[in-house]
């Protein structure tokens, strides 16, 4: 009997130290995410140097813990997959050096994974049989991207944000409302008790041609509104602001899916965990004959299972690996994956 294929996934591109173990291409047997959010909270955002040091402190323990939980030993690992970009250079370097060192020590293959391609693969952990072609909306703290996935590894950029990412706007509005970083999940909860039609915020670029987004103006509109009406209920501001973000994301993404003659849209990244956004996408998708799919919430936000999944797929399907000289790539785009 051949022994199962085990991939160790490592993700340290920002402020989450994540480690995962995968059996085959999609069976998650350990998934650990340690968030540094509390450490950075007092600074109002991620401090790269502190993030790097904390990844270094935490990573070895998480790897041990994952192996113990999955009841496998180091010598049962078949592949190490580590995020090599995009992200903060210091934090990327920590995960990458650790992953390469472990692969070298164990004499097993190593593969670097594009964090954005990892997000696309996150849906496979929930729906293993789903495969391209489909449209993908990646909505996170760092990115808002509409991507036509013709095949795995073959992506065409359809739209992006011209300023803030959707999650970034949520986090900044959260700050105005006195919510700690990251604010997305709390805005989700507040909006349950608010009225989404209480305040009419703008729907930036909703009617403009093309599939680009813009969220900076909307964020400023909320700031001016709060200055003018400081007594407004937080729940109503959160619900009304969220309604604007959702309106634009849903409209543009469904239009793009149709325009590219596709009937499936996957929504991934931290903001995809939003319950209001999921409901609207499913209802409006049905009206237009488009199946809208989301990963489980734990695989929406940053995790290493999606990194292990993308790495295992590439290695098992194409034999691809990376040399130990692979450097971190802070500005890596998804487009570059199509050229490999
Ligand atoms: O994918 P992710 O974990 O990290 C990046 O690659 O950026 O996304 C983080 C973003 C943050 O902006 C956070 O506020 C947002 O996802 N987020 C949410 C929810 N959970 C996390 N936004 C809306 N609703 C949620 N439930
Ligand atoms: Zn991410």
Would you write up a description of this structure?
- With about 350 residues, this protein is an alpha/beta fold.
- It has two domains: about 150 residues, Nucleotidyltransferase, domain 5, CATH 3.30.420.40; about 170 residues, Nucleotidyltransferase, domain 5 (2-Layer Sandwich).
- The protein is built from twelve helices and ten strands.
- The strands form two sheets. A five-stranded mixed β-sheet has the order 3-2-1-4-5, sandwiched between helices. Strands 8-7-6-9-10 form a five-stranded mixed β-sheet, with helices on both faces.
- Strand 9, helix 9 and strand 10 form a beta-alpha-beta unit.
- The longest helix is centred in the last third of the chain and has 26 residues.
- The mean pLDDT is about 95.
- The structure holds 5'-O-[(R)-(carboxyoxy)(hydroxy)phosphoryl]adenosine and zinc ion (ZN).
Short description:
The chain is of the alpha/beta class and 340 residues long. It is 45% helix and 19% strand.
Comma- or semicolon-separated keywords:
340 residues; 45% helix; Nucleotidyltransferase, domain 5; five-stranded mixed sheet; binds zinc ion; 10 strands; alpha/beta; binds 5'-O-[(R)-(carboxyoxy)(hydroxy)phosphoryl]adenosine
Helical content class: 40-55%
Cα-atom radius of gyration: 20 Å
- Sheet/helix structural class: alpha/beta
Number of helices: 12
CATH fold-level name of the largest domain: Nucleotidyltransferase, domain 5
Second rung of CATH, namely the architecture of the largest domain: 2-Layer Sandwich
How many beta-strand segments?
Answer: 10
Strand fraction: 15-25%
Query: So, the CATH homologous superfamily of the largest domain?
Result: ATPase, nucleotide binding domain
What is the makeup of the main sheet?
5 strands, mixed
Can you give the mean pLDDT? 96
Termini Cα gap: 34 Å
Uncertain regions spanning at least 5 consecutive residues: none
